[in-house]
Amino acid sequence: MTHSDSITLLLDLKASDLTFPLDNFVKEGFSKLTGPNKALIFTATYQPKQTICPACGVIASTRPVRAYNVSEILLTPSGHRPRVLSLTKAKYDCTDCGTHFTPNPYFIETGATISSVVKAAIFLDLRVKMSMKDVARRYFVSPAFCWKILDQIPLKQSFRQLPEVLCFDEFKATQNSDNGLAFVYSDGITHELIDILESRKQKDLMAYFFKFPREERLKVKTIVMDMNASYPTLLPILFPNAQLVIDGFHVVQQLSRAFNQLRIKEMNRLKKLPGDNGKVYRKLKKYWRNLLKYTGKIDYQKRKQFPLFHGEWRTEGEVIDYLLSQSKHLEAAYELLQNALDAFRNKQPKVFFDAIETLPNTLPEEFKKSCRYLLRHKTAISCGLLSPYSNGPLEGKNNLCKVIKRIAFGFSRFTHLRKRILLQQLLTKRN
């Protein structure tokens, strides 16, 4: 390996016709490409053995040299220090057509001062959870240059095929989206994110999914989603053979939210009563998580000291029994919640809906209204109880989308957010 080949390898470049001097081939100094940052400036000459005339395409091994052109090229940094290549390029005259031209190495585009190696490194970092300013600062370029690279990446939906199981959901995207919410869907079997749409309106979803062949849409057998009221009306049109499945997480969330709202209402009512109810208010406020816990996971054996109970040694079950004894409405709602969760865990749709349909008259009307809302989706919830598919992995993808958005301090353009998310998913898929 020659001296020039060794330096070329150290600069993360492939074999080329670069020639480095034996002495003083690198120095420390300032460059217009790196601004106030001191850079390692490498000196080299590019005079290829073979040249191709860009006008006539003639290939020749020797050309008469007219002059030399010196330019600076930004390379990948070494640690926290930028590296710049001061490249002297030979100018040529074509002996066939007389055109004057200056050939460039493979890592330099015509008129560019930033090497393609830096652009490739920026592309790889765009697939990581990192803000655009941090990426730009790492390679000593401007954030606008990084956005330009992102805009050049084609990530278009092919509209060729659909999986048998689809998961639908939405998350808060950019302000110019439909009410700030974007539609996202994934493969229910492999959990791979398929695409993200800026709008979740019915007309936009129909225009999007109609781009898929009818044969592919007929292959979809299951749609997993939350209790969104707008999506079910689209299924007979877009996916005639698909069965709607409502994920169990949202069902449990609906019941837990209704119970929690009742707890807050009872907590505030007890606070206004005379006597020692201020302490009951604080206890109901502090131990709300214990009241939402499934009864099969409550500890009835181990005793410990709970704050607000005057240092008494109690089990978790005794604390919950005390809290429920302060309100008959809360006690009745708790019994209903646990019966429903027990039937839900045992995958008994009939028992579950029997508990919802036979609500005690003593319960507040608002609580009963929240529970009866589940009856509107009785068929889909029953299918969800017996189905092996879940929207949980897609909810995790939504959390990833929010993390990417938060790290970037928001996105002004939806296309940028979509590309960052899909690029990150491509990295996860390959790993």
Automatic annotation (TrEMBL):
Instruction: Tell me what this protein is called.
Output: ISL3 family transposase
Residue ranges annotated for the Transposase IS204/IS1001/IS1096/IS1165 DDE domain, each copy included:
166-421
PANTHER family per the record? TRANSPOSASE FOR INSERTION SEQUENCE ELEMENT IS1557
Pfam families according to UniProt: DDE_Tnp_ISL3
